[in-house]
Design brief:
The protein is of the alpha+beta class. The chain has helices spanning 51-65, 97-103, 108-127, 179-182, 189-205, 215-224, 230-233, 239-248, 260-268, 281-287, 308-319, 323-330, 337-345, 351-359; strands at residues 8-9, 12-20, 24-31, 37-43, 75-81, 84-90, 94-96, 130-131, 140-143, 148-150, 157-158.
Amino acid sequence: MAFEVGQRVGEYEVVRILGHGGLGRVYEVRHAISQRAEAMKVLLPSERAGAETGERFRREIQLLGALSHPNIASLHNAFYHDGQLIMVMELVSGETLRARSIRAPMPVPQLLQYARQILSALDYAHTRGVVHRDIKPTNIMITAENQVKLLDFGIAISERSADLTAPGFMVGSVHYMSPEQIAGDKATPRSDLYSVGVTLYEVLTGRPPADGTSNFEIMRVRMNEEPLAPIEINPRLPLPLSNTLLKALERNPADRFATAQEFLAALSDIPGTGINELSTATTAFHTRGSSAQRVQPKSESPSGSFPLDDISRKLAVYIGPIASVVVRKLAPKCADLDQLYKEAATHISSETDRQRFLQSRRK
């Protein structure tokens, strides 16, 4: 069902239409009591929106209800209104990665900072058995604070739920789809990493790694041809970055990065990109107006300082880009590396995740 501006839907008032497609519509709404602005998603009745679409919508709600990560748009509520299932989500203000990349050339360090957040969100989802299956620039929102929000888990699958897709049937966006998805095989976490590789390749070079005049041609190229090295299209790119993207785009899933953490580590090791030095907008907010110098407390590391970038990268998997601020505030108060890890772990809400982070200290 469609709603009008000013209409009351449960505890929410419709403010405006944010977007719509053939199957659904998204509205900005305001909660009647808290006055918080939120996003309300509803399916529209149509011949195309059959039982399977309704089941996907219900499953999206359940998957998002089990996920809580700073780089994943969060679910706030779900309810029935006149028999129609409605989802209420975090309202993300900003622009998509697609719009951001079109608006102006994007510096490599900035894009890699976004990639770091995307991979953090995927690592969190994958460790919980959730595969997104539709990673693409229009499903990645960038806020005014340069925080990434991953959207649209509508075709995501969980290892604990049955896949609605019949064998041999494709779901996802052809331009960003992995070869195994094109072949109709089950998507895995490595499929999501392939789509991240396509996304980064396109933003950095201005063209997708496989293109054609039709979906069939795009699929043929993806299944049979190796992509051109990004550095051959954009010679200003660092060679290690070009090689990292080619690894993410391997046709055989076994030849790609095994996990989002592994992909993230490869990006973080690329010299000259500034990925470890680039401050997020949150970091800049906390250090603006001060002579922010690198803290070098007593440490076990050979250099005489804590490996702050490494700890921040590990912590960011669980709490997002604010990790850099947290680690740098804790470092001067800690006598050794073990204490720093223990203090940083207190900022992780899940006990399982806290233990996983502490175990990374010994790796």
